[in-house]
Amino acid sequence: MSCVRKVTEDLYWVGVNDKRLHLFENIHPIPNGVSYNSYLLKDEKNVLFDTVDWSGCREFLKNIEEVLAGEPLDYLIVNHMEPDHAASMEEVLLRYPECKVISNEKAFMFMHQFGFDVEGRKDEVKEGDIRCFGKHTVTFVAAPMVHWPEAMVTFDTTNGVLFSADAFGSFGSLDGRLFNDEVNFDRDWIDDARRYFTNIVGKYGPFVQHLLKKASNVPIKMFCPLHGPVWRTDLGYYIDKHDKWSRYEPEEKGVMIVYASMYGNTEAAAHRLASELCEKGVTNIKMYDVSKTHVSYLIADAFKYSHIVLASVTYNLNIYPVMYDFLHHLKLLNFQKRTFGIIENGTWAIRSGALMKNFIDENLKECTVLGAQVTINSSANEGNEKEFSSLADALVDSINK
User: Fold this and answer.
1) 205-262, pLDDT tens digit by residue?
2) Kind and range of the H or E element at 271?
3) For 8, how many CA atoms within 13 A lie in the half-sphere containing its CB?
4) Which residues contact 240 (CB under 8 A, 6 or more apart)?
5) Cα radius of gyration rounded to whole Å, the chain
6) Pick from 161, 45, 154: which is nearest to 96 by CA?
7) CA dihedral defined by 270, 275, 276, 278, rounded to 10 degrees?
8) Of all helices (H) and strands (E), which one includes residue 275?
């Protein structure tokens, strides 16, 4: 049995959902699953936009067969060659031997690298080229490094649909609800969307900004991404989120407290600071134990909040390893434009605070480390009260600027 949904006149979703996969790209937890979206346009020429991961190939082929209803598949447009979207293309081409492949030069190079033989079936396009399939005419727009160098998006000038590849995507299985207005996105989806963008595309903010500028000149009515819901209403809401994320601007004024604690003393200090902040009127606080939280969740909320407090023990005269790993991921993802506070702890040779500050100063662009700092010898005591108060005051003043 197939599972197909109509997107708009002549256009059908023929993708699949995967609720069995535990780790996206074998690294990021996806407790809500993920969708692999593919779209089939019925026109004088029938056109498939991207394929799906190999795990969903069998169901995917049934979906295509149902929509085609015995008609040929004339074209396969490949916007993105990453295997979760391109792995099934060989099976499609085997079943539809007359099908031509439309893509760009670098994507065809990647096809060769993955072992796909498309010789004699290639239709190579570049930015600004157009193809007409009957009623529908499409144009192609390069989207390099969003998030692979070959990525492009395809715009249907007839109906205003942007096939946006990995742009405007999200973690999460669709569970039958294809469109953004069929879900409570702010309640059920925004966290997955943020975590998807920040961890997968976050490093390439300037390239996303370039694509957003191109998109602003096009009369888009609908986003059809390769993961997550299809957007047919309130496009401005989702564009604004991506604009902020790709400019590394926080969504909210608030404090994310990330602590690394071996025996509970640094954790207690993190809770003490949170209480001080609440008493001073700042209640938008999120706390994480860095040792038991996957770094992808830490990255997502680092992009969300304006202020971050790092509370770490000193370990072998260095930053606690999992705290360092978090900082290292921030560096790799080009994270910037935040204000940091620091709590350090140690029983002897306390160094974590200075090392964290140096890391931020040397590796994270346009970030500020507050002068107020808490230094704990083993466990906090009455002697630290003024330091907690000073750090809380500094955070409050910075947030209220």
Assistant:
1) 999 999 999 988 899 999 999 999 999 999 999 999 999 999 999 999 999 999 999 9
2) helix 265-279
3) 15
4) none
5) 24
6) 45
7) 130
8) helix 265-279
